[in-house]
Specification:
single chain, 422 residues, alpha/beta, Nucleotidyltransferase, domain 5, 4 domains, 5-stranded mixed beta sheet, 3-stranded antiparallel beta sheet, 19 helices, 8 strands
């Protein structure tokens, strides 16, 4: 069974198990020979391997579901994509709270499921998420945050997945993946500048020129052998020469390359326009809506580097949010915790060195500051991106290839790894 687990973790085909067992017996592990009961029973058939994988999966899932049950809050990261067999898939990662060996509460992320979608619309995705949680016995009322890629099917104002989940769980907060927002900001900043659009077209043409022709690729490799590594850049003068005609010139391997002040001014203008476009787009995409405003206030609330007087309006925002999820009259409790935390900061106590320390302090003092503990748990469990979903799809693409494109969902589930935990 350990060999079966090894093959699954390393994305190796199960058909390698017989040869792997033979190799290990050759190395001296003679006990594996006991698996061969007779000529027809060797526990190396695909059916036996499937049963081994199911058993291992059940153990891993039971351990994960126990951790989820023990966590007071959890959040989800979801994304959908089309796989190599042209089937739409929904992947779900879960973020929970766990205590380490010294009783410090830390957020941990785990792969939860990957499922086929008949249609990638809001109703199908919403139903699949709810059904997956129900089948695994996960209490949806403990769901506090969800992170998506920001697609309209996910965050649509009328019938998006997030709004449907909020109808079931009014205290749910949603975030648009920070990595997706940054990428979209960069793209939109470049798409409005004709020069950068032209540069992108030239780069694509150069790539196609070499990637689609073995002859051209061989020529490129020959050039690389002549000028290995960064040798080309090292041979270019740092400061070109300025001639009598005002052109800046430098020689490179028999070629004369000329520049001018006008071209440089245009380049600076393009860079300024690109930077301004990115900043403008980021301001639009990162503007605080209600959910983002609550998350911002939560992070400021537990930041010991920010003075207490600067947190007044953020305390009000958090108190209003907690009241909306059933914590009535929590403003006074939050104020008392702020005074307690500020006194520790003023005395130089290192127990509140960062936001995570402050949140753990509130959780440990839950009996005294219940509202602050509730806010701390909701902050710690909040995801800011769906990068784990992207890693999960990358793992799926390593497992489900053009030669293994008929794998069903149960065989596609990537086994938990250290990366999933982080």
């Amino acid at each position: 069974m350990a060999n079966v687990l090894f093959l699954a973790k390393e994305d190796l085909p199960s058909s390698m198990l017989p040869e792997m067992n033979k190799f290990m017996m050759y190395q001296g592990l003679s006990k594996l020979a006991d698996l061969c009961v007779d000529s027809r029973t060797s526990y190396e058939h695909s059916t036996s391997i499937d049963e081994f994988q199911d058993s291992l999966s059940d153990v891993v899932e039971e351990d994960l579901l126990l951790k989820i049950k023990e966590s007071s809050k959890f959040s989800l990261m979801i994304d959908e994509r089309t796989d190599i067999s042209v089937h739409q898939k929904l992947i779900i990662y879960i973020r929970i709270l766990e205590k380490n060996n010294v009783d410090v509460v830390l957020p941990q992320k785990y792969f939860l499921s990957i499922n086929s979608l008949y249609r990638a619309d809001a109703e199908s995705i919403y139903s699949k998420v709810v059904n997956t949680l129900g089948e695994k016995g996960i209490d949806i009322t403990k769901l506090t945050k969800i992170s998506t890629d920001g697609a309209s099917v996910m965050v649509g104002n009328k019938s998006g997945v997030v709004n449907r989940l909020k109808a079931d769980n009014p205290g749910l907060l949603a975030t648009h993946c920070i990595a997706h927002r940054l990428a979209l900001s960069c793209c939109s900043g470049a798409d409005v500048i004709p020069f950068l659009v032209k540069v992108q077209e030239i780069l694509n043409s150069v790539y196609k020129y070499f990637s689609l022709s073995p002859k051209n690729t061989a020529m490129l490799e020959a050039i690389q052998k002549i000028t290995p590594g960064q040798a080309v850049l090292q041979q270019v003068p740092v400061e070109p020469r300025t001639g009598d005609d005002g052109l800046e010139t430098f020689e490179f391997q028999g070629h004369t390359i000329r520049d001018s002040s006008k071209q440089r001014q245009e380049a600076v203008s393009i860079c300024d326009s690109f930077s301004a476009g990115i900043i403008r787009s980021m301001n639009d995409r990162f503007a605080d809506n209600h959910d983002a405003g609550v998350l911002t206030s939560l992070s400021i609330l537990f930041n010991p580097a920010i003075a207490k007087d600067s947190k007044v309006k953020h305390v009000d925002v958090v108190a209003e949010y907690l009241c909306s999820v059933g914590f009535e009259g929590c403003l006074e409790s939050l104020g008392m915790f702020m005074n307690f935390m500020q006194s520790l900061v003023d005395s130089g106590n290192k127990i509140v060195g960062n936001s995570r320390d402050s949140a753990n302090l509130a959780i440990k003092k839950k009996d005294v500051y219940p509202a602050a503990a509730e806010a701390a748990e909701r902050l710690l469990v909040a995801p800011v991106s769906t990068v784990d979903c992207e890693r999960g799809f990358s793992k799926q693409n390593l497992i489900k290839t053009c030669l293994r494109n008929r794998l069903h969902d149960a065989n596609e589930d990537p086994p938990p790894t250290d990366q999933d935990s982080r």
